[in-house]
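ok, trying the design again with the full structure, not the truncated one.
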């Protein structure tokens, strides 16, 4: 298990690296995180839902993702409530206070343990990931994901500390000292992550940590910005520059408050023909060549915010002036005439007018659609793939006509379009397909420089996993890690 001194210390990326390293070394690894909190989710081949981070780790391990890799997923709906997804299916909404009370934890714990047991029967080694800090002493009795899970699995725990945020000695030593002795004995090593500067300057610090903690420092991993692994949260999205670039198609992704599945845009961001940025600035959006409305966990709340802050008007202005507009999932729902929530699944608002860019209406439904799909453009294209995760049915408004955007492999229709510059779809991952990106950019071909070429995102991701593995191998004592796993240390 990779456990942390806190959140965002790099556990997920290091777990991804170990999955690829173990695969390269001839093993059959699989990732596991008992409980994850994220809006960025993914559909398994069975049509169930897990956290995107575990799907990425499974990809690095060279295996299909499965709900056993992330049996409990919490999808925040507000500052206080989350949708609880258990074994890939929604199990209701819960207030944070109620969720973390001890009542009902036994049932969740049994489900988590059963998922781990099924996974461990098929793969070896299992790369477990903790959540937040391993020493949240006020939550110990209700903890499903950190040390109680490690003890159940008999896992060797490696403590990850983030030196970039400062205070790494106190956070590592303090985390260990807050653990009861039985848990402390399970921690077999330390990795210092996100180091900047000359590694030789930390040699004394490394020795001091080993003497203080009585366990080895397996490695000091430098920061990197030239290896690109899909991120789990959206904290850094707004920092991407909105300055227009010549010779490229400028693509604005509307920065929603409840944005979900923002990894839909990773391939587009890497495409050399595209300058992609995230923004809710009306001037930046109105000047974009392509505007994308992304997925949302709270469609009505985000639609209301777009109307309040003027972004809705900026999108309509951009469309009138020739920009393309693409809506994905919740963004597709917002592009229609009306979004209705008669059962109040998202909140008190029962209905709200959409942007009116597509002649469709949406009704939010309790039943969640979660599946992987194969499809072609209705206008003709090679077969492509993606996945759906949504609550709601979208259909043409009475008396209206529009062209179907996609045809699924089973013959069903997905999405609508009113020309090559205005379209909506429920398919996440649609922009991972070069054929769809080519169709999206085609109306703006005159802006592209002669050097522009299409982009193979799958090959790019495989290269990044290998580069990440090489980076971690260079700075972590992998032979010592194997000795720990084999019980020799």
């Amino acid at each position: 298990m990779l456990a942390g001194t806190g959140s965002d210390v790099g556990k997920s990326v290091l777990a991804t690296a170990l999955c690829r390293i173990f695969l390269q070394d001839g093993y059959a690894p699989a990732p596991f995180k008992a409980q994850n909190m994220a809006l960025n989710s993914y559909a398994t081949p069975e049509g169930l839902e897990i956290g995107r981070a575990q799907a990425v780790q499974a990809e690095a391990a060279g295996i299909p993702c499965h709900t056993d890799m992330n049996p409990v997923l919490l999808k925040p709906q507000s500052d206080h409530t989350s949708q609880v997804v258990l074994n890939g299916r929604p199990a209701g909404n819960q207030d944070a206070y109620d969720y973390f009370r001890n009542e009902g934890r036994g049932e969740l714990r049994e489900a988590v343990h059963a998922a781990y047991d099924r996974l461990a029967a098929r793969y070896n080694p299992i790369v477990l990931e903790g959540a937040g800090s391993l020493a949240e002493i006020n939550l110990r009795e209700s903890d499903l994901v950190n040390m109680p899970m490690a003890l159940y699995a008999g896992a060797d725990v490696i403590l990850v500390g983030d030196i970039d945020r400062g205070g790494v000695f106190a956070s590592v030593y303090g985390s260990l000292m807050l653990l009861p002795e039985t848990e402390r004995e399970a921690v077999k090593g330390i990795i210092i992550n996100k180091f900047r500067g000359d590694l030789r300057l930390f040699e004394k610090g490394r020795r001091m940590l080993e003497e203080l903690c009585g366990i080895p420092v397996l490695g000091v991993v430098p920061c990197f910005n030239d290896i690109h692994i899909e991120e789990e949260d959206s904290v850094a999205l707004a920092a991407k520059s909105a300055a227009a670039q010549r010779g490229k198609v400028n693509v604005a992704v509307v920065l929603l408050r409840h944005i979900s599945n923002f990894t839909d845009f990773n391939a587009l961001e890497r495409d050399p023909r595209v300058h992609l940025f995230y923004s809710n600035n009306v001037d930046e959006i109105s000047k974009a060549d392509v505007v994308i409305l992304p997925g949302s966990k709270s469609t009505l709340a985000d639609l209301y915010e777009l109307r309040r802050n003027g972004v809705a008007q900026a999108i309509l202005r951009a469309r009138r002036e020739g920009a393309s507009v693409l809506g994905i999932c919740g963004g597709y729902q917002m592009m229609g005439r009306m979004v209705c929530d008669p059962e109040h699944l998202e909140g008190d608002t029962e209905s709200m007018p959409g942007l009116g860019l597509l002649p469709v209406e949406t009704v939010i439904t309790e039943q969640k659609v979660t599946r992987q799909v194969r499809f072609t453009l209705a206008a003709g294209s090679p077969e492509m793939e993606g996945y759906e995760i949504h609550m709601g049915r979208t259909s043409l408004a009475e008396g209206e006509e529009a062209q179907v955007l996609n045809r699924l492999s089973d013959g069903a229709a997905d999405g609508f379009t009113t020309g090559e510059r205005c379209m909506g779809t429920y398919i996440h991952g649609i922009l991972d397909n070069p054929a769809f990106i080519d169709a999206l950019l085609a109306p703006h071909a005159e802006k592209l420089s002669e050097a522009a070429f299409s982009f193979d995102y799958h090959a790019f991701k495989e290269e990044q996993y290998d580069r990440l593995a090489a980076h971690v191998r260079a700075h972590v004592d992998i032979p010592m890690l194997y000795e720990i796993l084999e019980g020799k240390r």
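Keeping the full-length input from now on. The mean pLDDT is 92.
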